[in-house]
Q: What sequence folds into this?
DNA sequence: TAAGATTTGTTCGTATGTATC
DNA sequence: GGATACATACGAACAAATCTT
């Protein structure tokens, strides 16, 4: 004899249908090795395939959209398409996580101290002239010491921009991402740091000298020099942030 | 005279309503400094507040849910609640980004090489007895060299587990996250690496010795030693992965 | 310019599922 | 068990965007 049917017809998935649909579609993308730009089935087809109502399917699509995996367009030829997750979106999503942790300036610099020099060393002798000129143009953006606290703040943001450009030149997507992410957090932070200190001329000259020396070392392929310069630069930068009592901001960053 | 009304009544946001609602709620969370567990307004109230239909509100909630920012429960006392973004979810979301980049083993080790030693050094003399015992129990999990390729693979996964535990002991959430994320990727990778090589006894002894030495150094607060041990360990580990022609897997990791 | 076709976007009403009391 | 409060899901209709002719 067969056993009586179990009271629970199936150990059925407790998660909502949209969630399951979203996961099913994700698996489907991987199986078919879909690439950014590839088209997904339309709403009506998905409704038929999953036997679910339009609203349910749409909620599933929103989940995928929120994760950056798809984009949708209306009109003829429209629909849902695989969308490469952009670095900016990934940073925004990751920032949501750190919104609930509290990162200190010291935490960030514990990584920066070792990653930025590593990055600099790995780029030595590998940058094109265009890339080097790009870096030089950032340095040239503020040829004079700041006259006001606001101007000094702008220079600091520009300096962080320098580091993020450097990160993006890296052939290592993981290194590029982490360094760039830290730069992003520090930029947000800088905008809100206290502004009542007078501009510090000496600090300006020092930071500028670092960047110029670094570019030279990178151009001439002196990896160890580039590493050493960056190490020294990081020490100064950390001390500066600490002295300014900078606080890591609790907010969601925009994508 | 007033200028004639512009043809476009307002430079109105092109994004869909659910997206805008999700962002509005996000801002609202930050403004009110809501903490995990706090309750959000119910669907009906949100419908009234935003003047939108249920489906639209629900899509917005799905977006927030996908990002890990809220959780929902049905039933009386149910509703939507602020949900702390878990580390696992953040890793899954970030993995979506790297699905479209291609990470090599060398890329990951470029970071591991510097971050793991830094982590080890920063933990020296700061671990509790419980934490140290926890690490020892991982080492004790495989007291003998592997007899089969499968067993060797299990040992490798356990070893990565050791590193992830170490990461989570760090007081630095950023360092913990990055190291743990790399461990996650490498674990996935290890499961699929080639298995036709015979177990390597010498390699086993070496890895085990590293971990035991490291625990001793951590216990006795010898930070520089811990760093040096980990540096040497990383070199071996990288060489091992390269020799095995391990490939970073293209798939979405489960949350 | 205008009309029509296609596809997502949004609404409304209703019904069902689920957890608490 | 029944009442209650909430999210979940469905289905039909209409709106808006965008492409083609």
A:
């Amino acid at each position: 004899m067969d056993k009586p049917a179990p009271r629970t017809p199936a150990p059925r998935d407790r998660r909502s249908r949209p969630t399951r649909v979203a996961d099913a579609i994700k698996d489907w993308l991987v199986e078919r090795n879909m690439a950014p730009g590839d088209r997904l089935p339309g709403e009506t087809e998905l409704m038929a395939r999953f036997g679910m109502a339009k609203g349910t399917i749409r909620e599933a699509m929103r989940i995928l959209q929120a994760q950056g995996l798809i984009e949708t367009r209306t009109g003829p030829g429209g629909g849902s398409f695989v969308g490469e997750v952009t670095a900016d979106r990934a940073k925004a999503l990751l920032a949501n996580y750190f919104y609930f942790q509290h990162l200190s300036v010291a935490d960030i610099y514990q990584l920066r101290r070792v990653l930025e020099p590593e990055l600099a060393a790995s780029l030595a002798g590998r940058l094109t002239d265009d890339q080097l000129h790009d870096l030089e143009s950032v340095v040239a953006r503020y040829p004079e010491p700041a006259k006001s606290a606001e101007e000094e703040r702008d220079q600091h943001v520009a300096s962080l921009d320098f580091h993020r450009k450097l990160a993006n030149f890296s052939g290592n997507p993981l290194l590029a991402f982490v360094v760039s992410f830290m730069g992003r957090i520090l930029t947000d932070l800088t905008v809100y740091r206290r502004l009542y200190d007078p501009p510090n001329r000496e600090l300006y000259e020092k930071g500028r000298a670092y960047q110029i020396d670094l570019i030279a070392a990178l151009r001439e392929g002196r990896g160890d020099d580039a590493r050493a310069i960056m190490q020294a630069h990081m020490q100064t930068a950390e001390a500066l942030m600490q002295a300014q009592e900078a606080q890591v901001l609790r907010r969601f960053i925009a994508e």
Observations:
- Chain B has two domains: 17-82, 88-254.
- Chain B touches chain A through 53 residues (CB under 8 Å).
- Residues 16-18, 52-56, 59, 73-78 of chain B lie near DNA strand C (CB under 10 Å from a C1').
- Residues 145 and 201 of chain B are 6 Å apart (CA to CA).
